[in-house]
Each structure stands twice: as C-alpha cells, then as structure tokens.
C-alpha cells in the first residue's frame, strides 16, 4: 500500500511539473510577411520581432514570397505549431482572408500590418498606413510640379492589393481635375523594381514625351528612374514614389526623384506587437482598422527624415 502511495505521489508531482512548465513557457508570435525581397518589409518584420521579443515573447518570421499558397502553408504550420498570435502582412486582400479566418477560428488573434484584407471579422485588428490621404497630397504636388499640363504615366503595384488602389485613387482624386494633365499609360509592376524598369522602358518607347510618372512604391520609382537614365530622359521626367525606403530617401535628397510618401513601418510593427501583448493580458476590444498617418517627403523637408521614419532629436 505504501509502495502504491509513493508511485501515486510521484505521478502527481510529474503532472504538476508538466503543467507548470507549460504555463511558464513564453508565448510564441508568428510574423507572416508578404515578401522579404523588399527592404521595407524586412524592416517591418524585424521591427515587429524586436518589439515582441522586448515584451517577452518568442518570434518566428515567415516569408510568403508574394505567394498566397505559400502564405497558406505558413498559417497551417503556425496553427499546428501552437503559435499564440500572428502579426500579418497579407499577400492578397481577398485571397488572404481565408488564412486569417482559419487562425481566428483556432482562437489565434491576427493583427494585420500595412496591408489590408477584405474582411472586418477575419482579423482582430488591421493597422494600416493612410495611403489614400498621403496620395492626395502627392497628387497635389505632382500637379503643381507639372504645372497642371502634359502627358504622364502611372505604375501600379500588385493589382490584388488594396494599397495599390487606395494610392491610385488618392492620386487621381486630384490630378483628374486638370484636363490638361493626361495619363497616357497605366501599367502594373507588382511593387517590383526590375519589373518597373521594364515597364518604364516600354512606356518610354510608346510615349517618349511624358513629363512625370507616379509610382505605387519606392522600389518601382527607383526602377523607373533607372529606365529614364538609360533613355537619357532623367532631366525631363519627374518621378514620385511611396514608402520612405532608404534608396528613395537618398534619391529625393539629391534630386533624382521628386518625392516619396514616408510610411512608418516601425510604428505599425510595434503597435501590432503591443496589441498582441494586450490580447495575451486579456484585452479584447481593438479598433478593427487603425490608420497611421503618412508624410510627404520632398527636398524642402528631407532633412527631417531618414529611411523608414523621422529623425530623432
């Protein structure tokens, strides 16, 4: 009898230790980003991981390579591995909804960063740059710089990404009011620098007289600039980007491109990590969409900025 009591006590102690170990394990946060082929998204992912780790959590970054099917694999792996939250930069506004929904159904909160999904219920919160408002400002600058006349082109990002159209709509809400400003080409380059260079080369062949090009992100703006240099038209064509990436900030400073819109990926990433932390601590009321302001950066104010943000005093 005493022997049995000893074994029973040992079993209880073992189960007790196992429970305490599970409870004491650090919570895990998955950071699923659309692509690590763009330095902007690398900075976003690393900023999210750094903040989450500072808050006491373990992290793992997943690269979807702009592929929704690969993103699906990442979500399935994160759910199966028991991650406690997902900080999410989607590949596709519509196609990514199903992945976020699966996580939410598994009681894993999802916090979208920068890119939007077309659902108010498939994410705990979406923290998004105010792309439309920033591009209204860029549109005003563009129209003034081109003296409200002349032919121009637009290079779009990924057509299934809401950011692409929010930026385009903000821009056109201004420039379409000037009948002497004529868009002669509008093509997608998928937010990719090399594709944008090829697209710009093609545009210049058909429309060598354009005076400006509005690009949906900085990578495409830099690709477009490369094409204008190759064609000897860098002094003729004014180029406008969006993001606040390092090479674009330098290009604004030395006049290679006219302007960019400075997003704040560190603010977005840290807010997402803080939301996850609050969720773990019992908070359940989050804004479904939280807009983050974007600044227009030109040569006049470039000294206030560095890559991906404002200079600190």
TrEMBL record:
Compartments in which it is found: Cell envelope
Keyword tags: Signal
Keyword match Signal: yes
Tagged with keyword Transit peptide: no
UniProt cross-references to Pfam families, sorted A to Z: Peripla_BP_4
Periplasmic binding protein domain span: 29-283
InterPro entries assigned: Peripla_BP_I, SBP_2_dom
Family matches, as CDD domains: PBP1_TmRBP-like (cd19967)
Gene3D superfamilies given in the database record: 3.40.50.2300
Similarity comment: Belongs to the bacterial solute-binding protein 2 family.
Name of the protein described by the UniProt record: D-ribose ABC transporter substrate-binding protein
Species of the source: Olivibacter oleidegradans
């Amino acid at each position: 009898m005493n022997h049995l009591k000893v074994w029973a006590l040992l079993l209880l102690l073992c189960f007790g230790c196992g429970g305490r170990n599970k409870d004491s394990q650090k919570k895990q946060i998955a950071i699923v980003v659309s692509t690590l082929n763009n330095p902007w998204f690398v900075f976003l992912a690393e900023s999210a991981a750094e903040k989450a780790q500072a808050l006491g959590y373990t992290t793992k970054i997943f690269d979807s390579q702009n592929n929704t099917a690969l993103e699906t694999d990442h979500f399935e792996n994160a759910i199966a591995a028991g991650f406690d939250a997902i900080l999410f930069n989607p590949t596709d506004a519509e196609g990514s909804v199903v992945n976020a929904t699966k996580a939410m159904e598994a009681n894993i909160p999802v916090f979208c960063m920068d890119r939007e999904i077309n659902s108010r219920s498939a994410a705990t919160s979406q923290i998004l740059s105010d792309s439309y408002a920033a591009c209204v400002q860029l549109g005003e600058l563009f129209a003034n710089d081109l003296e409200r006349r002349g032919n121009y082109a637009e290079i779009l990002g990924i057509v299934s990404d809401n950011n692409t159209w929010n930026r385009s709509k903000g821009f056109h809400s201004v420039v379409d009011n000037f009948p002497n400003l004529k868009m002669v080409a509008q093509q997608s380059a998928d937010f990719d620098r090399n594709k944008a260079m090829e697209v710009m080369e093609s545009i210049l062949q058909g429309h060598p007289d354009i005076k400006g090009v509005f690009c949906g992100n900085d990578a495409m703006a830099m690709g477009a600039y490369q094409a204008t240099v190759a064609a000897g038209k860098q002094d003729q064509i004014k180029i406008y980007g969006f993001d606040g990436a390092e090479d674009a900030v330098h290009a604004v400073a030395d006049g290679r491109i006219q302007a960019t819109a400075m997003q704040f990926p560190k603010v977005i990433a840290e807010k997402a990590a803080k939301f996850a932390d609050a969720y773990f601590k019992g908070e359940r009321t989050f804004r479904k969409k939280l807009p983050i302001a974007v600044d227009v950066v030109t040569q006049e104010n470039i000294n206030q900025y560095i890559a991906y943000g404002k200079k600190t005093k």
